[in-house]
Amino acid sequence: MLKTEGKTDTPLRGDYSAMRADYTIEQGWEKYTDEEHALWRQLYERQTALLPRYAAPEYLECLGRLNAADGIPDFRRATEVVHKATGWELVAVPGLIDENAFFTHLSERRFPVTNWLRTPEEMDYLVEPDVFHDFFGHVPLLIHPVFADYMQAYGKGGLRAMKLGTMENLTRLYWYMVEFGLLNTKDGLKAYGAGILSSAGETVYCIESPEPNRIGFDLERVMRTKYRIDDYQETYFVLESYEQLFDATSQDFGPIYERLRGLPDFAATEVLPDDKVYTRGTGRKRAA
Ligand code: PHE
Ligand code: FE
C-alpha cells in the first residue's frame, strides 16, 4: 500500500521500530495467534462466498493459486507462487510507507504487504490497509502477466511523477483503477480492484447498487477525477481489458501532465457529455 491510501491524521499503528532502510520488516509469520488466523479465515470465507458472482474471473483464478484459505499466508511461500508466474516478490512492511520507497519497490517488482491483521471489531471497516486488504486485494493480480507489468510500470511512473510534482493526477489512476476498478466481461460488470474485493460491503455495492456512476475508462478523465476515501465510491471506471489499461498508460505522461495542469478537476459525482456511461447513478444516499 501507499502512504496516501486512506490518508488520515491519526498516528500509524504498525511497529516501525524494526524497519530496514527500504521500509521492509520480517513478516513474523510464526507470531500470528490462532485467533488472528481464525479471523483471516472468517474474512476469507465471507469474501469468497461473494466473489464468484462479483469478481473478475482472472482475479478469482489467481486467488485460487495462492492457497490462502487456511490462515494468514506466509509471504515466503506465496512469493514462490507469484515469482514463478511473473517474477514479483512480496515484502513485509509495518503499514503505510514512504512514497519514494513504495514506488521503488514496485518499479523493481516487489510488492509491500502490511504484516498486521485488523481486529474483530474491524471486520467491516478499518482506516489503514492491513494484511487482508494488501494480500487478498492486491496480490492475486500480481500473478496476471499484464497486470503484473502494469504495476511495475506504475512504480516507475510514480518515481517520475514525484519529480514532476504531478502525484495527484497519478494517484487518481491508482485509486480508480488499482483500488476500485471494474471490468466489462461477457457476464456483465465484475470487480477487480483491491479496495473493492477486500470489502464485503463494496463488493456488492459496486455491482448491484443503483447509486454510483459506472463509466468507461479514459486515461485523462480518470486523472482529473477527485475521489472519496471515507465512503463507497460515487463513480467506478470500467476497463474492457487489462491490456487497455497497460496500453493507455504506456505513452509518455509528460505532455499529459502539462495539459492537465491547465484544466479543472472533476467532482467524484460528475458525468460528462463524452463519457461512455454504463450506468448513470441515482446518487449516494447518506445517513442524515
Ligand atoms: N507512462 C507513464 C509516464 O510516462 C508511466 C506510467 C505507466 C504511469 C503506467 C502509470 C501507469 O510517466
Ligand atoms: Fe490498497
Q: What small molecules accompany the polymer chains?
A: phenylalanine, fe (iii) ion
Mean pLDDT: 95
Uncertain segments are none
Helix-strand sequence: HHHEHEHHHEEHHEHEHHE
Rg over CA atoms, rounded to whole Å, is 18 Å
How many discrete structural domains? 1
Report on the biggest sheet: 5 strands, mixed
Straight-line distance between termini? 32 Å
CATH topology: Phenylalanine Hydroxylase
- CATH architecture grouping: Orthogonal Bundle
What is the beta-strand fraction? 5-15%
Shape field: globular
Helix content: 40-55%
Which class of secondary structure composition applies to the elements?
alpha/beta
* CATH H-level superfamily: Aromatic amino acid hydroxylase
Number of helical stretches of at least 4 residues: 12
Strand order of the largest sheet: 4-3-6-5-7
Number of beta strands: 7
